[in-house]
Amino acid sequence: MSNTTTRIATRFTPLTALLVALAAVPAGPAQAQVGACGEKRDVQQGALNEQTYRQLEQAYELVGEERYNDAYEIFTRLKGRANGDYVQSILSQALGQTEWARGNYDAALREMERAVELNGLPDETHYALMYQIAQLYFMQERLDDALAALDLWFCKVPEEKRVDTAYVLKASILAQKEDWGGVVEAIDQAISLGDAPREDWYRLKLAALFELERYPEAAETLEILVAGWPDKKDYWLQLSNIYIQLQDNAKALSVSALAYRRGMMTTQADILLLANLYAMQDVPYKAAQVLQKGLEDGIVEGSERYWTLAGDTWYSAEEFDRALGAFQQAGAAADDGEIDLRRGYLLVDMERWDEASQALSNALEKGGLNDTETGRAYLMLGMTQFNLGNYDQASTNWGRAGRYDSTRDAAQQWMNHLRQERARQAAAS
């Protein structure tokens, strides 16, 4: 492995440069080198003889060609006859990294742990190995061991040599331990170091913030995700929903409306959310417009429920013709006459007598109305016929309305009015 201590090793790389550096160090007296935090490592630095060095170089060339099995044979042979902790450490390290490259993670971990246990490598290499061991512990879900090894690496590596991915590894370990505060702290350090922070880092931070119920910070993180990855619909929806949770419906509407314009609101739930946000912000025209288009495009189910909602919303926007159109669609989908009755009310208010008469007749024909609604339907049907000059039909319908308690008095008043009108017309002729 390269002697650069700040790179997460997910793949094996040749170590020729490291071998040259190690071979150049002569054997000497024990050195007082720093070990774990608060401790010192006593390392007897060694040297490689020329024959061992050349065979190692050959093995690393095979690694560079991804001939891992051939390299493994050489490393194993050399280790079998190597003397001294220094050379044994190098070979255990090499075998561990070769096993990693071959996907044999248990074997890789054993060899790397052996290299650390021998305590023969210089600090920079020793702690780089601890970093790789932390990765392997994490892969094996040995979380406490992984965190301890990684914290040792952080302890010994100067801040200026640390990299973002090391903090991401720490955040990932802490996430498995459900230490969400630690996750946020670690991932923030990664982001501060990274030239181009990755999407999955922000996603990890977002998950931790949700767990901590730190919603304002979650909103800020989602704003970054929306800006950095604007084609991801989920981020837009999550941001809108979190603004709703923060009771900032104006921002929720802004986010959802922009997502709609970008063509991202493609499900019934999306359309209903946006329409509801417009309605909550007292913009019923836009709410109805969005809902109507969703219905016409087949995104929103063309049922009585949603056509009625569209009609109500158009009515709130004082777009009465559009409300009537929506109510007509709702009535066609309905099993009873309630919606046609409502449409009849509106048409009577607009004095559109022919259409009102048809709507009210449809309501009575479909049925499913209670006594109060039935009485009112007959009463208004009589009114439409009266205004159309069909006095006999008006009288018949008011007579039927008179059978219901809720409309008996009104029906009698209209019958009296009809008699007066007939008398007036007779006198005029």
Describe the structure.
The chain is mainly α and 429 residues long. The protein has 22 helices and two strands. The chain has a two-stranded antiparallel ribbon with strand order 1-2. A hairpin with a 5-residue loop joins strand 1 and strand 2 (40-43). The termini are far apart. The model is unreliable at 1-35 (pLDDT under 50). Among the domains are: 1-158, Serine Threonine Protein Phosphatase 5, Tetratricopeptide repeat (Alpha Horseshoe); 163-213, no CATH class.
Layout of helices and strands, plus pairs?
Blueprint: H1 16-23, E1 31-34, E2 40-43, H2 50-64, H3 68-81, H4 85-101, H5 105-118, H6 123-139, H7 143-156, H8 164-176, H9 180-193, H10 199-212, H11 215-228, H12 233-245, H13 249-261, H14 268-280, H15 284-296, H16 304-316, H17 320-333, H18 338-349, H19 353-366, H20 371-387, H21 391-401, H22 408-428
Antiparallel strand pairs: 1-2
Helix pairs in contact: 1-2, 2-3, 3-4, 4-5, 5-6, 6-7, 7-8, 8-9, 9-10, 10-11, 11-12, 12-13, 13-14, 14-15, 15-16, 16-17, 17-18, 18-19, 18-20, 19-20, 20-21, 20-22, 21-22
Q: What is this entry, summarized?
A:
This is Tetratricopeptide repeat protein. It contains 22 helices and two strands. The protein is mainly alpha-helical.
Q: Give the percentage of residues in beta strands.
A: under 5%
Largest beta sheet: strand ordering: 1-2
| Integer average pLDDT | 87
Order of helices and strands: HEEHHHHHHHHHHHHHHHHHHHHH
User: What's the CATH C level of the domain at 1-158?
Assistant: Mainly Alpha
CATH homologous superfamily classification of the domain at 1-158? Tetratricopeptide repeat domain
Shape: rod-shaped
- The amount of helix comes to over 70%
Oligomeric state of the chains in view: single chain
CATH architectural name of the domain at 1-158: Alpha Horseshoe
Going by helix content, strand content and strand pairing, the class is: mainly alpha
CATH-assigned fold name of the domain at 1-158: Serine Threonine Protein Phosphatase 5, Tetratricopeptide repeat
Total count of strands: 2
Give the count of helical stretches.
Answer: 22
Estimated radius of gyration: 40 Å
Which residues sit in consecutive blocks of at least 5 with pLDDT less than 50? 1-35
How can the largest sheet be summarized?
2 strands, antiparallel
Amino-to-carboxy terminus distance: 115 Å
Protein name: Tetratricopeptide repeat protein
Keywords: Signal
Pfam families: TPR_16
Signal peptide: 1-32
